[in-house]
Amino acid sequence: MPLTANGAATAHSTLGADLHAAPEVHSAIDTLVAEVAARSARLTGARPPRAELKETYESFMKRAADVRGRALLYPYLGSGLGNGALVELMDGSVKWDMISGIGVHFFGHSDPENIRHSLAGALSDTVMEGNLQANFDHYQFGETLLSLAKRNSRLAHCYVSTSGAMANENAVKVCYQKHAPASRVIAFKDCFMGRSVTMSQIGDAAANRVGVPLSTQVDYMPFYDLVAAQRMGKKRYIDMAVWHLMQYIERYPKQHACFIFELIQGEGGFNVGDREWAEELMKCCKAHSIAVWDDEIQTFGRTEQMFAYEMFDLGQYVDVFCVGKMTQICATLFTPEYNPGPGLLSGTFTGGPALFATGTRVLERLRDGNFYGPDGAFARHHALFRQHAKALAAKHPEWFPPVTGPFGPAVDDIVGGVGGMMRFTPFGGNKDKINKACKTMFEEGVVAFYCGHGPYHLRMLPPLPVFKESDWPAVFQCIERGLARAAQ
What we know:
Blueprint: H1 15-21, H2 23-40, H3 54-68, E1 78-83, E2 86-89, E3 94-97, H4 100-103, H5 112-122, H6 136-149, E4 157-161, H7 164-178, E5 184-188, H8 197-202, E6 217-221, H9 226-232, H10 234-251, E7 256-261, H11 275-287, E8 291-295, H12 308-311, E9 320-323, E10 330-334, H13 353-368, H14 377-395, E11 404-405, E12 408-409, E13 415-418, E14 421-424, H15 431-444, E15 446-447, E16 449-452, E17 456-460, H16 472-487
Parallel strand pairs: 3-15, 5-6, 5-7, 7-8, 8-9
Antiparallel strand pairs: 1-2, 2-3, 4-10, 9-10, 11-12, 13-14, 14-17, 16-17
């Protein structure tokens, strides 16, 4: 049972509640949190590996590669300690973590609040909960998420799951059942949905489905292209998008179960959509009984509103919604009309008590913090990111040539994204150069990653709630050193 703000349990009618309310328990948790904080505070900036740990670290890396069957993408093995945006590795190095496990660690490393609620949850009677046997923390997480989602949508029910891919699997099943026998789905070019058999087929990356039999029928729509919209005129561009969608609807009448909307693409390149464009596509779906599925597994919580559909004022159209990553527990939400029949959604494992307690607290902190809106912390951080990236490009223009595609300029700006989704495009978006830059930046003290499918971009998902505005110069010093090496 999660702790309340004053450390008391929410009920005292059972022995389990008495355990969670016991002063001795809270004192022990306070002691453990203080021990972590004392060591965490000693991590104050990036630093190189310690020479005496090099041989040991290499042996651990080999062991990890033997288990995995191939070398790790990055030589990253954490020590188990960090301090917000800083993380210590087993070689003694400390790095700025600007990717947060591709968005999972949004409150950073060794976060006292997360540790406190994780420890409280770990006192529960089981390690994992499931569909058949669950404690109420399972449903308290869903209640909290729904209370936020309902503010600007018709979403009414929540089913939790253990991963983003599983949340998406549940979503597509809900859509299939509602619109049976429709079997086709519509998705955006360059989308990413996860790595299950079905989601690998829907995701628009051929390398992720090599050897996978193709059984899911997918029709791809182009994502919003600001450069093309400016060149053509916005109204004409939107009319063409609706025309494109209608080609699929007329070619396969009543065969589409859903249209998967990424209002801001993640893996596809941190591409930001447009309200009028998305609304016209959603209206078209509604007119032809096609479910509007909003995928916010990477987007949720990072934009200038908690939900991307809030930022674009499109919640009224959403039928099915998926969330994950920073919430620790993943979930599929749906409106009353899409509430599935019994047996469709189930799972032996849906999550653990420590994750439910931590995930609920994450939602509360996002709700109560001064993060959102045009003057919120996330907007301020994004402005600072843009300022430093632009300054870097002005200082080293040779690293930032024009980014071109088959029809001219491929991006309107070398800096992009929104809120906590940040990307910039050196080396003309060349894949090999971007990959090299990720590795040289890592060696210089910044953990980042790439996104996009030509052009490619350097991507950052920093732990903004615990990141200091004064830390940006130190991060960009490491980035500059890494890019200098990659440019050679």
